Design the sequence.
């Protein structure tokens, strides 16, 4: 979010954060005379300031800086400002002895043709700044902020420039808000999908394979497979047919749909492939979306209205170019596998089909224990029919279809918000938004109504009236892409997946080697029943074996000793539960099968 957006979102908090940035710079300059200043903006959870320091600062200095900041707050210094004409302003910056501020001021003046610059002062500290700030330093609660971390940052983000020291701090309106945020942040650190992805051996990114091209390790592949199996069941029940399409395709297909050249920046360079005669070169690309392929399956023969709605689904691999600077774990990648699907229907069927898409989301989210979510309905703006989005000019279709979607949303009983003027050019859409452990709102899936492409690709069906008509298309992807959704699930479950998804569902450990035969036997019985059970033959102590299983967050650990062998029983330790339970092996086996079949959630490990 930009500073302007942050200010609009919460003006009071923005003033506090902005003022604290000044106060931190003031404190650092007092403790480290000769420190030069870079930028010091408010950010989403606080603020930062960039410095050139005479000697390095580490987090062991944080207490001193915080104490000095509290001192300044106590002194009730007033924030005042003055606007100076350009000559005077430049003179003032020179007097301040701030070369970086001077460089930036010069550029600002030139670029925006400024006539004056604003300076804020509190105590003896002056900074060039637009504001706004609190009136007096003691308007800020002395315990609502905390220095968080120190990092290197190039001046103006350019690696040709000098490296500065950036100090990040959290800041909120109250101590309580700060504590809540800090708790959430610590929890999020523990649950970070890159950290857990490594510890639990879920995925690996190898630079020699390519940036943003994750390799799924055996454990991570199980997560994908289980998720796919589940989505395919939901899709089968909702009347979808599964299809499969290639990764490569003629570039011209995307010209026809209207995605090119508009979408080209997200695609990989095109490939020229010579024909068998060696003359005609055809142009191919890696597909960035599956839509036109499904459309071509629809149009592989003339469809009758009796076949509608026709629902096609595929976990389809697509490739999208992302700048390497923005690549991050599984969250931003260059190749992704999408829970894609398209529904071809008549106008009258739109409401019911959208309702069914929403029901699928509801079921999926309930199974995953995702509870904090809502829908965002992006509609067109009739005042702006040819505006920035260049909406398909068909006001009647927009109004009619939007009303149907609205009705479906109301029927679904799910909470929603409307975003007027946010629709794509080809039709209204519904995004499912949910909150992550860090409190960040994220788009989990997009569902789009399309009344432009059927015409462009000349899709039609034979109606009851004997005439040919264009179908409507609903694009939907409830589980988004494997990459994003699994990254989310890793953090959501903190790596402790419910039994049905868990890479290893059962670990069998014995008290001593004497009981290994029985241990191996029950692991085999479970495996023969397609339950992912492993016997620990490491020869380590019981304590060590249990700790290893716990570290891997295995949901069910069976402890086998003399008593268990005698009675053909097991002692079950569930992940995250102190209490152990001894029961006949047969009973456990039956219970476990139900637990997996019903995809039971383990409430005790869900995000709080
Ligand atoms: Zn400021
Ligand atoms: Zn699509």
Sequence:
């Amino acid at each position: 979010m930009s500073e302007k957006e942050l200010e609009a979102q919460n003006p009071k908090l923005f003033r506090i954060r902005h003022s604290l940035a000044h106060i931190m710079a003031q404190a650092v300059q007092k403790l480290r005379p000769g420190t030069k200043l870079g930028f010091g903006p408010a950010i989403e959870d606080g603020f930062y300031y960039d410095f050139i320091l005479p000697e390095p600062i580490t987090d062991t200095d944080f207490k001193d800086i915080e104490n000095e900041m509290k001192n300044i707050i106590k002194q009730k210094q007033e924030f005042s400002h003055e606007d100076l004409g350009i000559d005077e302003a430049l003179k003032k910056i020179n007097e301040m002895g701030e070369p970086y501020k001077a460089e930036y001021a010069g550029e600002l003046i030139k670029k925006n043709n400024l006539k004056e610059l604003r300076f804020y002062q509190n105590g003896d500290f002056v900074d060039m700044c637009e504001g706004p700030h609190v009136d007096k330093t003691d308007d800020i609660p002395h315990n609502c902020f905390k220095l968080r971390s120190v990092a290197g940052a190039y001046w103006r983000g350019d690696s040709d420039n000098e490296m500065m020291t950036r100090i990040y701090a959290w800041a909120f309106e109250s101590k309580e808000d700060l504590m809540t945020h800090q708790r959430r942040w610590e929890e999020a650190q523990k649950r970070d999908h890159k950290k857990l992805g490594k510890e639990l051996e879920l995925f690996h990114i190898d630079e020699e394979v390519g940036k943003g091209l994750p390799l799924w390790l055996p454990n991570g592949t199980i997560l994908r497979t289980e998720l796919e199996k589940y989505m395919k069941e939901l899709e089968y029940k909702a009347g979808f047919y599964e299809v499969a399409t290639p990764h490569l395709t003629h570039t011209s297909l995307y010209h026809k749909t209207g995605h090119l050249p508009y979408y080209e920046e997200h695609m990989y360079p095109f490939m020229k492939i010579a024909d068998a005669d060696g003359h005609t070169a055809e142009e191919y690309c890696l597909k960035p979306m599956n839509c036109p392929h499904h459309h071509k399956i629809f149009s592989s023969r003339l469809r009758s209205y009796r076949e509608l709605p026709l629902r096609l689904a595929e976990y389809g691999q697509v490739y999208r170019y992302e700048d390497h600077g923005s690549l991050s774990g599984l969250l931003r990648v260059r190749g992704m596998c999408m829970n894609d699907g398209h529904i071809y229907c008549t106008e009258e069927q739109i409401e019911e089909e959208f309702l069914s898409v929403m029901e699928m989301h509801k079921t999926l989210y309930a199974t995953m224990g995702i509870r904090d979510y809502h829908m965002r309905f992006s509609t067109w703006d009739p005042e702006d029919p040819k505006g920035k989005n260049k909406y398909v000019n068909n006001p009647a279709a927009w109004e009619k279809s939007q009303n149907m979607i609205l009705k479906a949303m109301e029927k679904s009983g799910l909470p929603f918000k409307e975003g007027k003027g946010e629709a794509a050019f080809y039709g209204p859409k519904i995004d499912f938004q949910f909150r992550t452990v860090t409190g960040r709102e994220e788009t989990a899936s997009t569902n789009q109504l399309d009344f432009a492409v059927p015409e462009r690709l000349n899709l039609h069906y034979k109606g009851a009236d004997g005439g040919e008509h264009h179908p409507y298309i609903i694009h939907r992807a409830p589980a988004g892409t494997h990459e994003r959704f699994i990254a989310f699930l890793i953090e959501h479950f903190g790596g402790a997946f419910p039994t049905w998804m868990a890479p290893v569902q059962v670990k069998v450990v014995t008290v001593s080697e004497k009981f290994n035969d029985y241990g191996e036997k029950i692991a085999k019985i479970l495996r023969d029943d397609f339950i992912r059970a492993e016997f620990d033959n490491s020869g380590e102590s019981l304590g060590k074996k249990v700790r290893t299983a716990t570290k891997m967050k295995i949901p069910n650990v069976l402890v086998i000793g003399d008593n268990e062998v005698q009675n053909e029983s097991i002692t079950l330790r569930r992940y995250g539960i102190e209490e152990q339970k001894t029961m006949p092996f047969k009973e456990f086996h039956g219970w476990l099968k139900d637990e997996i079949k019903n995809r039971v959630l383990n409430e005790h490990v869900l995000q709080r």
Q: What stands out?
A: The radius of gyration is 30 Å. The chain is about 35% helix and 25% strand. The chain has a mean pLDDT of 92. Residues 18, 22, 120, 127, 129, 131, 133 surround zinc ion (ligand 1) (CB under 6 Å).
